[in-house]
Amino acid sequence: MGEPTREATDKRWCEKVTVSFRNTGGSAVRSGTVTLGTHIIGALGIDWATIDSTRDLPVPIAAGVGSTKTWTVCVDDWRVPLGMHIETRDVAVQWK
């Protein structure tokens, strides 16, 4: 799994997050989940909270093959007042 790349949207409480996956195992990945940790950052750079969201892994991923997926990740708008923004920094994968 690669580092997430982020792209702003027109809403400060949403962003597009792209993650690359590579199956280095000997058999295809048929299911799994991706947990994205989105940090709420204040105007002075203080990390106020982390909100997790879970998405389905883009499957199947054959052995030795990669896959890339982009999700629009949003938190509740009231969590991100003016002057604050979000950054999806954490990615955890549960392969099955």
What does this structure look like?
- It is built from no helices and 6 strands.
- It has 96 residues and is mainly β.
- The strands form 2 sheets. It has a 3-stranded antiparallel sheet, with no helix packed on it. The chain has a 3-stranded antiparallel sheet with strand order 4-3-6, with no helix packed on it.
- It is elongated.
Name a few traits of the molecule.
mainly beta; 96 residues; 6 strands; 3-stranded antiparallel β-sheet
Quick structural summary:
By secondary structure, the chain is an all-beta fold. The chain is built from no helices and 6 strands.
| DSSP helix fraction | under 10%
Regions with little confidence, pLDDT below 50 for 5+ residues: none
- How large is the radius of gyration? 15 Å
Largest sheet: 3 strands, antiparallel
Shape: elongated
The largest beta-sheet arranges its strands as 1-2-5
Q: What is the count of DSSP helices, taking H or I runs of 4+ residues?
A: 0
Name the quaternary structure. Answer: single chain
The tally of strands reads 6
Order of helix and strand elements from N to C terminus:
EEEEEE
Helix/strand-derived class?
mainly beta
**End-to-end gap:** 15 Å
Mean pLDDT, to the nearest integer, reads: 93
Approximate strand percentage: over 45%
Fold topology:
Layout lengths: L4 E4 L5 E9 L9 E10 L5 E10 L9 E9 L10 E11 L1
